[in-house]
Each structure stands twice: as structure tokens, then as C-alpha cells.
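May I ask for an example protein's residues together with how it folds?

___
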Amino acid sequence: MSGGVNENFIYQISCEDGSIIKTLPKDPSIDPVGMTFALNHLWMTDTQNDLIHKVDTTNGLVVENFPSPDPLPDDYPAGMAWDGENFWIADANSGIFYQIDSLGNVLNQSQNSVSGFINGLTFINGNIWYTENVQDLLREMDPSDFSTLQTFELDLGTYPNGLAFDGQYLWLAVADENTEVDSIYKIELGLPIPVTIAEVIETTESISAYPNPVAERLQFNFSEIKPAELTHLLVYNSVGTVMVRAQIDDKIKSLDISHLPSGMYTYSFKHQAGYTYSGKFMKH
């Protein structure tokens, strides 16, 4: 599902047919630009009041808020995304990106202006994707050093705004000043087709993983299975997207997961006989 706003309402929109699933009232004094869903709440940047709002999705009421991270007087907190553990905020005027926790504490930030007038923001497979509103650009950025990985020119109308990711497709909202028509586009990124966690078969404790939680390297213990009998290993994130694919040999004892963003994951070993052995781990 995607989301959208006007002066008085917040809309939950179906990704299947664009229909409105839910409508929430919005305080007209709040001017949300960036939105993301995390920790069972909707979170919004407020450019009018330089605040971040935590919103109850059952009634649209603001549960709490805290100041936006940019201390400059002309700050414009625009894009907002959740990486599985913390938030990312982009300030459109300064071009600075911030990583903050759910209390508003700044954990990391780009030291210099990264880009032009940033608006939409989302987090995909460990990287930040964002729109440059004025230049009609879509960029992918490495959050570890804030370097640009890819740039795409958009020819979908003026002012690309909100971004969202559903685990497979990128969704882009465009407010076209020329036609005065607002549109939402579904964009194919060429990512592997996601599976639901229900499709991953939970079996016995024949294979276990430790430490859990883990920061850099996940160790495997094979109590009843010989590694040589396994064909490959997959690691899924919480929405079922394949994050790691690895071929198996009889020497596999660990897996480097330092590049994965923080969050909950499922590992799945495929046996040559067709069985699947899986378990879960937390990356911090």
C-alpha cells in the first residue's frame, strides 16, 4: 500500500488499483512532505513547523512529535524513510541527510550538501533512493559514505515527490505542474521476486546459527546435516526479499552479513533432496 495527503486528509492507497483504502483526518496546520510507516505508526515530516510527527493510524491523531534534525532557520525536512532500525531524513534546502532514532536523536549525517532539492525518500536493500524535485531526477545513494550509485532522469512530469517501496516495486508520486494532474507510478527495479516468509519452510534444529543478534558474521552449526548435501543458501529480509544468495560447499561455516541493514532476517538452506532448513536471526 502507498500513502498520500491533501490539506485535511491522509490517504492509504491500494497498490493494486489506486483505490483509497482508508482516510484519516489531518490537522491543516501540519504540512507533511515525507511519510513512512514504522513501529506500528505513521511518521511524517512537517515542513511548516519543522517537526517530525508520530501518528496513530487508527484515528489520524498525533501521538508525539520532536524537532526536525536540521538546526538552520530555513530548514525544510522533506523525505523520510525507515531502514529497519532507524529513520533517515533529508532536508531539501540544505541537501543534508540525517539518520535519527525514534526519539529524534541524530546518529549520523552527511557533512556536506549531497544533492539538490530532495523530496521523496525510501530505503531499498541497504541503500537510500531519493528524488530531486526540481531537476526531475531519481538517485540511489550508499548511506555508508553518501556517495551516488545511480542516477535516473525522470520524464514523468514535473516535481517527482513521494517515494515508497513495497518489497519489489518502487512507487513514485509526481505532481505535474504543466498538466495539473497528480499521478502515482509503479517502477520496476529488476529486483528478485520476493517470497513471503510463510513460503520458507521451518524445519528441525538440524542447522542453527549464532550469535543472535549478530553484527558482522553469522556462524552455522550443522548437527544432523552435512554441508556437502546442501545446494545453496538464501537470506530473506522481513518482507521476503532475497538479500543474499550463496552457493554451498563442504567448508561453509559462516556468512558475512555486515553489509545488511539492521533488522530481522530468515536464512534458508536448500538440501539436494529438496528439503529446506531455515531459521531466523537479528542483525544489529
Notes: The chain has two domains: 2-188, 197-283. The radius of gyration is 21 Å.
